[in-house]
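worker-3 :: picked Amino acid/amide ABC transporter membrane protein 1, HAAT family
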Amino acid sequence: MFELLGIPPQALFGQVLLGLINGSFYAILSLGLAVIFGLLNIINFAHGAQYMMGAFVAWMCLNYFGINYWAALLLAPLIVGVFGVIIERVLIARLANLDHLYGLLLTFGLALIIQGLFRNQYGSSGLPYQIPPQLTGGQNLGFMFLPNYRAWVIAASLVVCLATWFLIEKTRLGAYLRAATENPTLTQAFGINVPLLVTLTYGFGVALAAFAGVLAAPIYSVNPNMGADLIIVVFAVVVIGGMGSILGAIITGFGLGLIEGLTKVFYPEAAATVIFIIMVLVLLVKPAGLFGRTT
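worker-3 :: tokens ->
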């Protein structure tokens, strides 16, 4: 059927794979943004810089300390998450009673500072990060060649996204998080340390961004601008899914990545703007987003 349209099947499935890979990063990053916005009501503009930090920490672990990819996959989110906790305690917590615009401006400034520091130290040309030996090569599926590392990225993203959804929606800790979002004063009256919960939630959202950065390091070059190039698209994904919606971030992230990949096959000229066109249409029909709640 696709050959009748003049589209080779290999090109179609290749773009579908690329769309799923991009969707994996969209889903994890928008999930982190949704988690942070859901509890802190802060639009974390530093999210792209924290994603970049995850990739750089993995690169530094390998090149400075000889720590391999698998250990870095655990260490980098932990290190960057601790950095996020410090940022929340020292800076963001001071803006808790102010207009949300101040939090947006603060995190935007943080993003510029972080990117500038890394650019001054490492330049903008990009640094290579090798695929781990266990995931080199690929599988010939007949209709396409599937690189092992790309398959791993998609599978790991799905597992992390679903585990996060389960944690927030189906566990007691998640119930505490939702209660603190709805009524922090009443939640604290029941003996729950809401400020600590808020701090750890921000650190967890930052750690998700760093995890995505480690996954991206072997695919894209590790450079200070990698987050800046992605964060605008991720914000569009979050708006389409619904600000603060965990399920919306996951489904919309993967779905829009796939749509973007298919657009590159059928109408390449619109590939760079299709997500933003969808955002405009969704906001016209449902301003709260596909899975968002009107407040």
